[in-house]
Amino acid sequence: MNATRDLRVPICGWLLAAALNCTPLLGADPLSAPPVPKPAPAHRSEWAAALRKPVPESIADLAAIEQHVKALLPRVSPAVVAVEVGYGSGSGVVVSSNGLVLTAGHVAGRAGRSVHFTFPDGKVAHGKTLGLDADTDSGLMLITDPGPWPCVPMGDFEDVRLGDWVLALGHPGGFDLQRSLVARLGRVIGFPEGAIQTDCTISPGDSGGPLVDMAGHVIGIHTAISGPTSENYHVAINDYYEAWDHLTHGPQTTDLVANPRAYIGASGVDDPAGCRITEVESNSPAARAGLKAGDIVLEVEQRRIPVAAVFRRWIAEAQPGETLHLEVKRGDDHLKLEVQVETPPGPR
Question: Fewer CB atoms near the end CB (10 Å): N or C, the chain?
Fold first, then answer.
């Protein structure tokens, strides 16, 4: 059986907000730094027996899973938002009634940016990016319009098991009221370097959307799409707990928007292994270092590169004259390259 399915469902509206089990994380001042939230326990022993089997054993098991998902979607769907930041877009999930929104770091970009949120029923709200942690590609936003807002609780990565059924929710391709929210059912298939890998199909525009367990808790955030669309990667929810100070103290966080004073002459896109280089300018620092289009940057300064935005972050942080040490995959070979950062060239 193919575990991945598209489930396009109607959204039941704002009256469901009061029924969602999520705790307000902010104090009386909606712009104050929220405390680190506590993960909600999964209580997997209370799940239907079919959800706890290694594989479904009968039509009855499949029917039980389907019924569980149909009951779960109206609880979590109202909190999954489409987000527009600058010229980019992605997805996010509201995790407090006061409007905290988890997303991917490369969607947030930097602290203090204006955000336009669209809920599945078409309602819109405004907010800002609070902060991000580029190493894990985690980001946090805040709805600044008055709430309360529909929300879902944050779960615990320690409760996640290989083979668990999960839902990937988001707004692939941007918000579409005619299509409604898109939810895909799949399973956890791996834990590469602390991330979560699933066979839930995700597409551009899903980045920042939630991976939800069968208790209705957020256990991950979509971060990278693989070549095969059935093998995708999600930031583990515990990375958000561990990076909470970075996420809530935005002015102290790293900006993923390129530093105009730092230049190497290479650009890239997301790849399952890291950042795949798509262009190397002639006579640039990257070209002189031996970097080529098609190379996959795995590490910079011995730090893993999960997505292209993190590679750009390292360039943005560097100063002209600084040498960056890269680990690069070229075909079957792993190379060590050194690239010296320069100031951008003048107009040509």
Answer: C
d(CA 281, CA 177): 41
Architecture of domain 5-248 in this structure: Beta Barrel (2.40)
- In sign, the C-alpha dihedral spanning 249, 252, 254, 257 is positive
CB neighbours of 58 closer than 8 A, spacing ≥ 6?
A: none
The one-character DSSP state at 2 is: -
Structure-token pair, residue 56: 């479904």
- Grade residue 117 by pLDDT with cuts at 50, 70 and 90: very high
- Return d(Cα 212, Cα 272) in angstroms, integer: 21
- Residue 205: pLDDT band (50, 70, 90) is confident
Q: Where in the chain is the domain with CATH 2.40.10.120?
A: 5-248
pTM of the model: 0.69
- 3-state SS assignment for residue 203: coil
Residues forming CATH 2.30.42.10 domain(s) in the chain: 266-340
